């Protein structure tokens, strides 16, 4: 069991390093080469194909009553999650998006308290307040800051965090009954169905003749790593750790994003990112991380 838990933590580490790099990589071709909704269409389409190919070797039927929960997981964990994230990232800076996404553990705590009746301690309440102030500060700051920040983009990323946090809570009971590959295959199929009306027009308007090698490499990274491997790693880890532990690994994403943006701004001299790292963003990041630390900290046992 300890070996499986160790593998789960390695999977979460890998998934969140992939996500952290994705902020700057995916934004590099939006919207110049492809619109965010078209990008999500391609991501979910090929992701669903890859997962169903993987599922072909697993002979497992899903009960009809569980299809409703899987449909909700597809709506929250695939369609809404990815549409909100990519449209938000398209408008705002990679740094802002990576900081706001660390609010996921706060959302998981709130949903767990409401749906699973988990007790909220004073430490957790304080953590929610501190983390919430940090996230709100960053969203408000995006309204008139320099660089590539955007208030609307930050709000969309925050809604993405809310949707994904709820997904982590409601998908957990299914993992007791079914193989994780079965679950993620259905999640992507339903996600693609829900996303189709929002992404098809953007896809048809895409000028594929303007794609160059870099465009295809970025799309390939998003499909293979950010979609297939990252989702696979996350759903595997949920078999052995709680949703709150899973979500706490998002702490890594701002660090990876800060490093990637710094490389782009100061090494590769991409001027559009030069003003994306400043004191307000560092303070916001610190407040969110402190808040999440307080939320995830185990209560002291009485002597």
Descriptive account of the structure:
The protein is mainly α and 303 residues long. The protein has one domain (2-296). The protein contains twelve helices and no strands. It has helices at residues 2-27, 36-55, 64-91, 94-100, 104-115, 122-141, 151-177, 180-204, 213-237, 243-248, 252-267, 279-296. Helix 2 crosses helix 9. The longest helix has 28 residues, at 64-91. The protein starts with a helix and ends in a 7-residue tail after the last helix.
Give a short summary of the structure.
It contains twelve helices and no strands. With 303 residues, it is an all-alpha fold.
Question: How many domains, as an integer?
Answer: 1
> Number of DSSP helices?
12
How many β-strand runs?
Answer: 0
Strand content bin: under 5%
Given the C-alpha coordinates, what overall shape results? globular
The class by helix and strand makeup works out as mainly alpha
Q: How do the helices and strands follow one another from N- to C-terminus?
A: HHHHHHHHHHHH
The percentage helix is: over 70%
Report the uncertain regions.
none
Average of the residue pLDDT scores:
82
> How many strands, which pairing sense, and closed or not: the largest β-sheet?
none
The Cα radius of gyration reads 19 Å
Euclidean distance between termini CA atoms: 29 Å
């Amino acid at each position: 069991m300890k070996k499986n838990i160790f593998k789960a933590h390695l999977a979460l580490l890998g998934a969140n390093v992939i996500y952290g790099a994705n902020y700057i990589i995916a934004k590099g071709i939006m919207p110049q080469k492809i619109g965010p909704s078209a990008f999500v269409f391609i991501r979910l389409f090929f992701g669903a194909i890859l997962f169903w190919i993987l599922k072909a070797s697993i002979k497992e039927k899903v009960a009809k009553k569980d299809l409703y929960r899987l449909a909700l997981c597809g709506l929250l964990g695939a369609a809404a999650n990815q549409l909100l994230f990519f449209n938000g990232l398209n408008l705002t800076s990679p740094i802002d998006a990576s900081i706001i996404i660390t609010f996921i553990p706060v959302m998981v705590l709130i949903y767990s308290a409401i749906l699973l009746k988990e007790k909220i301690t004073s430490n957790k309440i304080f953590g929610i307040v501190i983390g919430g102030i940090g996230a709100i500060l960053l969203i408000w700051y995006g309204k008139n800051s320099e660089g590539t920040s955007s208030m609307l983009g930050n709000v969309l990323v925050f809604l993405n965090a809310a949707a994904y946090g709820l997904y982590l809570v409601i998908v957990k009971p299914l993992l007791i009954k079914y193989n994780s590959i079965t679950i993620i295959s259905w999640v992507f199929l339903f996600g693609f169905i829900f996303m189709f009306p929002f992404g098809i027009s953007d896809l048809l308007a895409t000028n594929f003749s303007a794609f160059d090698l870099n465009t295809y490499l970025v799309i390939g990274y998003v499909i293979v790593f950010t979609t297939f491997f990252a989702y696979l790693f996350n759903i595997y880890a949920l078999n052995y750790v709680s949703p709150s532990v899973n979500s706490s690994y998002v702490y890594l994403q701002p660090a990876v994003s800060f490093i990637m943006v710094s490389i782009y701004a100061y090494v590769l001299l991409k001027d559009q990112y030069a003003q994306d790292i400043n004191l307000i963003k560092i303070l916001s990041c610190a407040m969110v991380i402190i808040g999440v630390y307080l939320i995830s900290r185990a209560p002291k046992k009485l002597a």
